[in-house]
Each structure stands twice: as structure tokens, then as C-alpha cells.
Amino acid sequence: MPPPRPIVDGMSRVPWQTHVYRNRHGRGVRTPMFGVRLPQYRTKSGLFDDIVASQIRRLSSAWPQLVKPVQFAVEDVPPVQDDVWQDTSSTTSRSFPAQHGVPARIVLYRMALQMQVTTRMELQWAIRDELVSRIAELYGRRPEEIDPDWGM
């Protein structure tokens, strides 16, 4: 029987700093499939949040006085309402005007938007169109005034 290995030596180094480490049964190599900084590591929800943030930055650079006072949020699905059959509002986003010290808010629903598109470029356009239409709705303007490329 070989002598036991000291536990302290194995505890001093994290597994990814060792040359090769095995799974708990000692059979296979447990290394990441790809680096954590590569694009494949991003989840669909993380990618969606990145697109929303970039569109908000783009709109904020063009219209800082309109975008700055608005709070933006992303939720997975719209909330269930009692009058869901009579509701004619959009299921992809919703805007809430400012009231009683609460700033105006725009909420995008990730799953509803992702189900309507097939490519990443279409998702970017859909997010852009939703944000522009909701900002225009909050301020009583036409979406074409906010972004001339809206709806294209």
C-alpha cells in the first residue's frame, strides 16, 4: 500500500493551476471546454442584456435628455394579469410613466422578444425598435423622431 499523500499539498493549489486534474472517479480529464473569456461562455440572457445595454448607450448618446431620467429593466416573461384576454398592450415590452417620485420605467421581456426572431441581428433590431417605441410613447413623440431607422 502506498503512503498517503499529504492533504495540505493538495489544498494549497486550486485544480485549474495543476497540470492535469481528474474527475472525482479518477477517469477523465476535467478541464474547461473553452475559456471563460470566449463568446461561447455567454448565456442567452447575458447576451440579451449586453444588446440592451449597447442600445441604451447608443440612444443615450443621441438623446441624453430623454434617456437619462428613464430606468430600464429586463424580465424573462410578462407578468400574468387577470384581464389577460382583454389586454391589447404589447407582450414584448412595457413602459410606465413617472409618477409620485418614481421615475419613468421601460421593461423589456426577454423570452417574448427572443421567440419572435431567429438571428442575433434580428434580435438587435427588435430590441432597438422596442426601446425607441417605448421612449417615444413616454414622451409623446413619433418613433421616427427618436431614431430615423426605426421599423426598418
TrEMBL record:
Chain segments annotated as transmembrane: none
InterPro entries in alphabetical order: Zincin_1 (IPR010428), Zincin_1_sf (IPR038555)
One Pfam family this sequence matches: Zincin_1
Stated name of the protein: Peptidase
Taxonomic source organism: Bifidobacterium tibiigranuli
Lineage: Bacteria, Bacillati, Actinomycetota, Actinomycetes, Bifidobacteriales
